[in-house]
Amino acid sequence: MLIDNITIIICIVVLLLTVVSVVANPFFRSVKSNRSYKEEGCELPPITVVVLSQNDVEALDKHLPLLFEQDYAPGFEVIVVGEKGDLDLEAVLGKYADHKNLYTTYIPKRSLFMSKPKLSASLGIKAAHNEWIVMLNASCAPASDKWLQSIARNIDDNTNLVVGYSNYKDDVKPYRRFIRLREACYYLRSAACGMAYRSTGANIAFKRSEFIGKDGYRGNLQHVYGEYDFIINKFAEPGSAAIALDPDSFLHQECRTKKTWTEFCIANSHVGSHLERKSRMRLTYAFDVLLMYLNYAALIAAGVYSGLTGRWLALAIAVVCITFTLALRIILVKKKCRLFDEHISAWAIPFYELSLVWFDMLTRLRYMRADKHDFSTHKI
User: Fold this and answer.
1) Which domains does the chain have, with CATH numbers?
2) What is the pLDDT of residue 380?
């Protein structure tokens, strides 16, 4: 067996890269609540649930009963915001007109100077009777009848934002759920450990008075999308955000078609380019992906070179390291799957991770080719 300086260098390099690449991983970093979770029976604030409905009347019809069934003793109201003249929406709301805590407000069919999602959110928030607002899309379903209670238990005197977990329903392709899960690991850790950056979708709670007092979406009214992200990004302060990690606090969202998924990814890319504090998040993401690819490339190159030159110790170390890397990365993802109640096959995880750079490149290419007028309205 040939053991020389080159063998020793190869072994040291592959061992170091293996350790660093596993640590530089969003699934390795802990995501823990930064608040004392209030026990059952503690005083909780009354809440207004603002539901944004746009071209998803069927989903609204399915999910409204789940909101009315919430077990929340302090009391809550549900405000549905939709487009004026939408007969299907009015028919659905008419079915639930007997619910005393249901309110409705409408936006005009045409909105030239403000995006419809932001206009809907603004009107719903201003119509609220309670200080704390929880906002979601009509396509979202709460995980249980304890959803509101679980979100509210993270609120204390030092909290002005609660960021919850939101992912697609189990019938959506697992790759899409994997991408959302990975993003959530970045965003929830950011909120828990420093300053909230953005969310994976709906499921956020914030103060009505702060939204109105700080002029709501002013500063980003021209962007069509990002009604959740811009609230978090604008109102976040160091240590002010709580994260909700109880499974009861989760939201599950519909994503019926590939087109819906693609449009969301492109819009997500546009919003991300206009958020504050984006440089640090992008650097962390790029560092994690780069090290993962560098590690795999180095292990394969070391194994091939060692095999061709008869350095069997280095080859054995390379084989052990690549096996260790694959196994540990799968274990780390499955651990986060258990935390967020996700179901993703272990065998698919390495392929999903290795496809990240191609997914990002394809999304950026689609965004570059897209008509930028689709993402902006006229500035006020």
Assistant:
1) 5-27+280-375 (no CATH), 47-276 (3.90.550.10)
2) 42
